[in-house]
Amino acid sequence: MSLLKTVLENGGFAVTAEMAPPKGYDVSHPLEVAELLRGKVHGINVTDMQSACLKASGLGLCIHLKQMGLEPILQITGRDRNRMGILGDVLSAASFGIDTVLALTGDHPVVGDCRETKPVYDLDSVGILAMLSKMEQEGCDCGGNPLSSVPTLFKGATVTPVYEPLPLQIHKLRRKVEAGAQYIQTQGIFDTESLKRFLDAVDRADIHVPIMAGIIPLKSAAMGKFMNENVPGIAVPDAQLQALENVKASGGKPSELGMTLAADLIGEIKAQSLCCGVHIMAIGAEKNVPAILRQAGME
Amino acid sequence: MIITQKKPLEELLQMLQGVTKVAIVGCGNCAAACQTGGEKEIQEMKTLLEERGFQVMATVLPDECCHKMLVRRDTKVLRDCGAEAVVGMACGDGVQTVADNIALPVYPANNTMFLGQVERVGIFHEYCRMCGDCVLGDTGGICPVTQCAKGLVNGPCGGQKNGKCEVSPENDCAWIKIYQRLLLLGQEDKLLKPCRERGYAADAHPRHIDLRGKKK
């Protein structure tokens, strides 16, 4: 059974970390990093060609992680596979004991590195969740045909807390939950104020689902500025950008401050019981995750 | 309207290699409005081809190039004109309809782009993807299948930035437009409808409609 599900159902503070498969077939580096996360997180969330850039498939890395005795979470986008492709992958994943999934619509190929790719989008995030829920409830495939064995999944989805108009994002969240999302992880947030505004809106909409706050440790002011300008839903406060600049100007390491900011935010979220957990997106610096958790007092 | 765009002349000339005598067929409807196959464009094409040594044996401008009977009637003159090939200045439908009616190779001078709105002369916007399952009643008259780059029918993705689509900053996020329109119409509750399932079983090409109750 999904470790993440167990933790969330028992009211624990869940921690997951995100990791990308390699752009190649040699998985030794991701597996070394994953080893560092053993016992520190409740799930390693494997991306599905994030930002529409080609990588080895997430299912492959998930199988490697599972065989190491780690707890992978399979991200599934609707960009590259139709409903048959998705369901086939989910069944294959389940045969390896991989039962925690995260459904996303997926970035469009033209924003990625293989721009001529034909986008699929047979199903969006809501459609993927609905198909998987129907499979679990009725024991059937996407054509309504009976399956010989039916996995029980723990299904998640994402949400963007800093979004204008916010009611539209709340409507989409409701659709995801109604379609079967059992946990939600947010886009990266950088302050508790914007998170609280979003959580209040979720409460007012009477939507009940465990929400894990997305945490992106900043490596530099330039990274923060780039994300502010280019990544939807990201709003790094000016004060944090300035602090990162100051550290750099005084000869210090901005990435260490970024880790401290992330750890402080995690600590605050936990202390104030704002969310059921955190999802750390270290973007290539996953080796720092144990240190961030240590700083946040999570050991 | 079917929106077409001229192919580069070099591409057409490549198709016409080995041919010296051609006929030109335009379309008096969509292609004329798109400035890709009306009388003026036919004459321009004639001049361009003659400058390159082609003999233009005949030109024809049917009122609509997608109407089989009409095209059969109007292209009769091409059969004995001595042309070795036909240049089709219509949409893909028109070019094929001409080809259905004449035993000569028909080469397209245009690319067929989309089903679109004519905002004003020379400005066209894609408005319908002809999905065969119209959702406009739920979406304030704004088509998410067409206006959303991903064709999403259950609300926005997370990719909009300042209301603009991740695919092209020229395009507004369709779902923000839909939301604003539904607010204006007092129909925000339509966003509470359950997940819309879109299927493709009826999408097997080519599709046919027979109002006469018998198969063609």
Mind explaining what this structure looks like?
Chain A is an alpha/beta fold and 299 residues long. Chain A has one domain (3-295): TIM Barrel. Chain A has eleven helices and eight strands. Chain A has helices spanning 3-9, 28-36, 58-67, 83-95, 125-138, 166-178, 192-204, 221-230, 238-249, 254-271, 289-295; strands at residues 14-19, 43-46, 72-77, 100-104, 154-159, 183-188, 211-215, 277-280. In chain A, strands 1-2-3-4-5-6-7-8 form an eight-stranded parallel barrel, surrounded by six helices. In chain A, helix 2 links the parallel strand 1 and strand 2 (43-46). The model of chain A has no long low-confidence stretch (mean pLDDT 96). Chain B is 28% helix and 19% strand. Chain B has helices at residues 9-15, 30-33, 39-51, 68-74, 76-79, 92-101, 144-147, 174-184, and strands at 2-6, 21-25, 55-60, 85-88, 106-108, 110-120, 123-128. In chain B, 38% of the residues are buried. In chain B, strands 3-2-4-5 form a four-stranded parallel β-sheet, sandwiched between helices. Chain B has eight helices and seven strands. Chain B is elongated. Chain B has 216 residues and is an alpha/beta fold. In chain B, helix 6 (92-101) links the parallel strand 4 and strand 5 (106-108). The mean pLDDT of chain B is 95. Chain B has two domains: 2-113, Rossmann fold (3-Layer(aba) Sandwich), CATH 3.40.50; 131-192, no CATH class. Chain A binds chain B through residues 105, 107-108, 110-111, 119, 121-122, 124-127, 129-130, 158-160, 163-165, 167-169, 171-172, 174-175, 178-179, 187, 230, 232-233, and chain B through 149-161, 163, 166-167, 175-176, 179-180, 188, 191-192, 194-195, 197-198, 200.
Question: Would you summarize the structure shown here?
Answer:
The complex is a heterodimer of chains A (299) and B (216). With 299 residues, chain A is α/β, with parallel strands linked by helices.
